[in-house]
UniProtKB/TrEMBL annotation:
UniProt function note: DNA polymerase III is a complex, multichain enzyme responsible for most of the replicative synthesis in bacteria. This DNA polymerase also exhibits 3' to 5' exonuclease activity.
Species of origin: Nakamurella multipartita (strain ATCC 700099 / DSM 44233 / CIP 104796 / JCM 9543 / NBRC 105858 / Y-104)
Official protein name in the record: DNA polymerase III subunit gamma/tau
Lineage: Bacteria, Bacillati, Actinomycetota, Actinomycetes, Nakamurellales
CDD domains xrefs: AAA, HLD_clamp_pol_III_gamma_tau
Family from the record: Belongs to the DnaX/STICHEL family.
């Protein structure tokens, strides 16, 4: 029969006791000086070396060269008191758990008066001393108080408070402690090397955690794993299954899902835990331990090097990324929720239900009214504000939106050819002259043909003196001739309400021909130029993505489209899209697990794109479309640029072998509610689903405005720097329902 590891490697001297230097060093000093007391009390958790140290003390006292801190190991007393020795008649070990009555202590008292048979001292080791009854302690009180010269008592207990006070006050009390994980790891590595066992490095932290700081429990766990190991040694998978701990990959999946707010992945992980037969309480305990590590990593980035966290280096890197995504306040609140839930799970009949409710509470911080939930929501808002403040200036200058001009009553009969990109400006000016002069319709079918409206061309920078229009005050304008133009169209069956913000007809007629406004045949009738998003660089683009030469009528978008809080667009135009590769076996959790590898592939091609995608969070995967979220709408649009989206799709194809489309949303509202109320029926935003317009290839010099290099005038659509206090007040008002106090 094989000898257990905790018995085989039991220490024989004080130098071999690990993790208890605060006890062994004073004892060695006292033995070297000959200051031997008549009674000792060793207290501490189980398996930390109390009984072994008591035997070593007895061996040091009865050594031929003793009392000595280092027994020789060769004399008869040292051989008899060795870890696997036969024992000595002069050293009596008594288990008070089964011999703690008054009769047992009286018998021990009677034997204590006899002189030692062959040793210097007669030593009584009373283990589990807290189990001795009060009558038993009273029977020992007199002999412990005034013992003979040859008698030494050593009490060992895990609960020193239960030892009679009169006994405890007559002893030298040495408190033992739990062994540090780093010390246990060094000891286990040395034992595995001596045993010739092959153990994966990831197994040792599991064994140490299962041992709980006890050397005996840790060695018992390792002994069990070594006994059932195959030719390949002790693997991580077999250790996880045998010890009953939660797999680190499952914990990573749950933490990533909590950071992304993906409730489906969280509850799917809980279902796998239950279906595998694991204890929900153990899963909650391991998740709480992981959140504790994340909180420490948030406060101490080098916690692994300082020994505050015992984990492999690769796992420390992933945990650091998780700590950055969660934040200290979020991780702290989730840990508090789990800690409270573990107390509730002790007496419950349905631990799975309690665990799922805990997960729901962690996913929904807005449902709680405590300080932790408020800190979590504020942490999210502050993260968005910091990222918005660090955004680079847009490359395109903000421009003034042109004033809409009414369409003429009739169109010329002959269709005009579509202008080339470099000739659009000249064609637009000629069309403006024709419209201002009020050219009559030509041809017999001029009245029957529907009036065609063309989308606005890309706007040009304008001088402040050339456009004396003031800021938009939201005041209604007089009615226009739109009803007359609609009557000339036979297909205008759907009635349309006139907008209060339409342009005046007299302004349209008095527009000078050389003005740099948008020509009438390229402006959308009866639609005010939409205010650009604050987080979006202002640049003119055709509405709805139609070319300037298109004859389609620009129809206004539904009101719901203008009031949507979050705008999303697909990554590339149809020319760059390809049918996605069928990969139904890949789930969103697999994408999160391999996301660092995807970013590494992107970094090989473009470092800036990889830095941009560091802030992205994988949210969902549906029908070949990978949905991401970014902290702000501006960053989401940058991800959707063809240059960045194509690199991301290429990285996904290299790592996962898939060809998905990319959809990126802003993690929060992208527009102010007040702006949405002012334009309830605004037309569809040209930024939705359309790529950025490319500038003309080789335009003539006269098309470049004279004020191209001048700073843009401050307009309502320009992206001016905002006060951080005003931004914080706006977020508190819109998100938390706060109201500013009147002075």
């Amino acid at each position: 029969m094989a000898l257990a590891l905790y018995r085989k490697y039991r220490p024989a001297t004080f130098a071999e006791v690990v993790g208890q230097e605060h006890v062994t060093q004073p004892l060695r000093t006292a033995l070297a000086a000959g200051r031997v007391n008549h009674a000792y009390l060793f207290s501490g958790p189980r398996g930390c070396g109390k009984t072994s140290s008591a035997r070593i003390l007895a061996r040091s006292l009865n050594c031929v060269h003793g009392p000595t801190p280092d027994p020789c190991g060769e004399c008869p007393s040292c051989i008899a008191l060795a870890p696997e020795g036969p024992g000595s008649l002069d050293v009596v070990e008594l288990d008070a758990a089964s011999h703690g009555g008054v009769d047992d202590t009286r018998d021990l008292r009677d034997r204590a008066f006899y002189m030692p048979a062959e040793s210097r001292y007669r030593v009584f080791i009373i283990d589990e001393a807290h189990m001795v009854t009060t009558q038993g302690f009273n029977a020992l009180l007199k002999i412990v108080e005034e013992p003979p010269e040859h008698l030494v008592f050593i009490f060992a207990t895990t609960e020193p408070d239960k030892v009679l006070t009169t006994i405890r006050s007559r002893t030298h009390h040495y408190p033992f402690r739990l062994i540090a994980p780093s010390v246990l790891r060094t000891m286990l590595e040395r034992l595995c090397e001596q045993e010739g066992a092959v153990v994966e490095p990831a197994v040792l932290p599991l064994v140490i955690r299962a041992g709980g700081g006890s050397a005996r429990d840790t060695l018992s766990m390792l002994d069990q794993l070594l006994a059932g190991a195959g030719p390949e040694g002790v693997t991580y998978r077999s250790a996880v299954a045998l010890l009953g701990v939660t797999d680190a990959a499952l914990l990573d999946e749950v933490v990533d899902a909590l950071a992304a707010g993906d409730g489906g992945s969280v509850f799917a992980a809980v279902d796998r835990v239950i279906e595998a037969g694991h204890d929900p309480r153990r899963f909650a305990t391991d998740l709480l331990q992981r959140l504790r590590d994340l909180v420490i990593l948030s406060a101490v980035p080098d916690a692994g090097a300082k020994g505050l966290i015992d984990a492999p280096s690769d796992q420390l890197e992933s945990m650091s990324a998780q700590a950055d995504r969660l934040g200290a306040a979020t991780a702290t609140r989730m840990a508090e929720v789990l800690h409270t839930g573990l107390v509730d799970m002790r007496g419950t009949t349905s631990p799975r239900l309690v665990l799922e409710l805990l997960c729901a509470r962690m996913l929904l911080p807005a449902t709680a009214d405590g300080d932790g939930a408020l800190l979590q929501r504020l942490e999210r808002m502050e993260r968005r504000m910091e990222i918005a403040a660090d955004e680079p200036e847009p490359t395109a200058r903000p421009v003034r939106q042109p004033t809409a001009v009414e369409i003429p009553l009739a169109e010329p009969a002959g269709p005009e050819p579509a202008a080339e990109p470099e000739q659009r400006t000249g064609t637009a000016e000629r069309a403006a002259e024709r419209t201002a002069a009020g050219r009559p319709a030509q041809g017999p079918n001029a009245q029957q043909r529907p009036a065609a409206s063309r989308p606005a061309a890309p706007a040009r920078p304008q001088r402040p003196e050339a456009t004396p229009a003031g800021p938009d005050l939201g005041l209604p304008a007089p009615p226009t001739l739109r009803s007359t133009a609609r009557a000339a169209r036979p297909d205008a069956s759907r009635p349309e309400q006139p907008r209060p913000d339409q342009a005046r007809p007299d302004q349209a007629r008095t527009t000078p021909p050389d003005s740099r406004r948008t020509p009438p045949d390229q402006a959308r009738p009866a639609a005010r130029a939409p205010e650009p998003d604050r987080n979006r660089p202002a640049a003119g683009s055709p509405a709805g993505g139609q070319p300037p030469g298109s004859d389609r009528v620009a129809r206004p978008a539904p009101a719901a489209a203008s009031s949507a809080p979050t705008r999303s667009a697909e990554s590339a135009p149809a020319a760059h899209e390809s049918s996605p590769t069928p990969a139904s076996e890949i789930e969103v959790v697999d994408v999160r697990r391999n996301w660092p590898e995807v970013l590494a592939k992107v970094q090989q091609r473009r470092r800036t794109t990889q830095i941009l995608l560091e802030s992205a969070t994988v949210v969902a995967l549906e029908n070949g479309v990978l949905r991401l979220t970014m902290p702000s709408a501006a960053l989401a649009r940058r991800v959707l640029e063809p240059a960045n989206a194509d690199l991301l799709r290429a990285g996904l194809k290299q790592v996962l072998g898939v060809d998905w489309r990319i959809q990126c949303d802003a993690d929060g509202p992208a527009a102010r509610p007040a702006a949405a109320e002012r334009r309830p029926a605004a037309a569809a935003d040209p930024w939705d689903g359309a790529p950025l317009p490319e500038p003309p290839a080789d335009g003539p010099d006269e098309e470049i405005p004279d004020d191209y290099g001048d700073p843009a005038p401050p307009t309502s659509g320009s992206q001016a720097p905002r006060d951080p206090e005003a931004m914080a007040l706006e977020l508190l008002t819109t998100q938390l329902g706060a109201r500013p106090l009147e002075p």
